[in-house]
From TrEMBL:
This is Large ribosomal subunit protein uL2m. Residues 207-340 form the Large ribosomal subunit protein uL2 C-terminal domain. Component of the mitochondrial ribosome (mitoribosome), a dedicated translation machinery responsible for the synthesis of mitochondrial genome-encoded proteins, including at least some of the essential transmembrane subunits of the mitochondrial respiratory chain. The mitoribosomes are attached to the mitochondrial inner membrane and translation products are cotranslationally integrated into the membrane. GO terms for biological process: mitochondrial translation. NCBIfam families: rplB_bact (TIGR01171). Transmembrane segments: none annotated. One of its GO terms (cellular component) is mitochondrial large ribosomal subunit. It comes from the Eukaryota. The keyword Metal-binding does not apply.
Amino acid sequence: MLQTRLPLRPTSTACRCLLSTIRSYAVAAVDRKPPPTLEPTVSAGDGQIYQAAGPRKESTVQMRTYKPRTPGLRHLKRPINDHLWKGRPVSKLTYPKTGMGKAGRNNSGHVTVRHRGGGHKRRIRIIDYHRRGPGEHVVERIEYDPNRSSHIALLSNSKTKEQSYVVAADGMRAGDKVESFRSGIPQHLIASMGGVIDPGMLAAKTAFRGNCLPVRMVPIGTQIFNVGSKATGGAVFCRSAGTYAVIMSKEESRQKVKEVVIRLQSGEQRKIDPDACCTVGVASNPHAHFAQLGKAGRARWLGIRPTVRGLAMNAADHPHGGGRGKSKGNVHPVSPWGTPAKGGYKTRRKRNKNVWLVQDRVRNQGKRRPK
């Protein structure tokens, strides 16, 4: 039974005076400001400086939502990328994705990656991870690539008009001009510095967003992506959406850079060859991991098949299966083949350790990371 609200009685003057004396506090005005932090920066060709974003709790991410006309649209969220090309890719830079690789099978037909199969037909885009072509290139457009989380940019050589696909940097748009200095420093750039290569002036003229150059030419603290490991190879690190590495230090010997130490987003610090390639900036589409598919059918379009828990299987199909109710037989979490699921077996070499590793990333070994 609902009760009616009782009217508040007006307090007397004596009570008000007593409360005012009790509730009076002396508060000192202290301006608490957090200490300044050193954030890596990236310079753009237009003279602007872009700093790294702060914590996610302090910033909001704008996603595209839809009116729930159907159940599948209710929870659908996508990043806002209105600048993407609406047409088809360049056919000569693509080839169809066929074969059993779409279903997670190897050349003998055995399943090596589970929960793969079906999906919409795709064409593989040929990405230039080496970028050895010198000269100025113009960004014709930014395209969506179904085979990766980041976006790709179609570049055109200003002289030869040769086209190529590269992983786009965050903020890159059509009409931007980028250049690769991996084949060497052009003569007109050396002449502009008075015939002498000055590292500071060289970085101010080359370390722009989207430019590809050896890591020895990039200033310390700069954000880079598409990072290579060897002087002769292509990019192998930080190729996914929103990923980047930071140059920590350079080891010099006789005025020549011998090794460069970079820090990956996992916390790992490793050495790479000073002539390895890298692209200045952050990989495009940084809000890709905030997307929500909204329905199971959209995952099937992407070639992702359902994942069945081992607890829901029979005892003949999984070590966790069988039994009455939710019970996995008092065994540790394992894979369908008995391999420990949390941490697995230790496979790190005690001898012949990785000489390129400076500081390993934090490994939990199946345990919760302390907060």
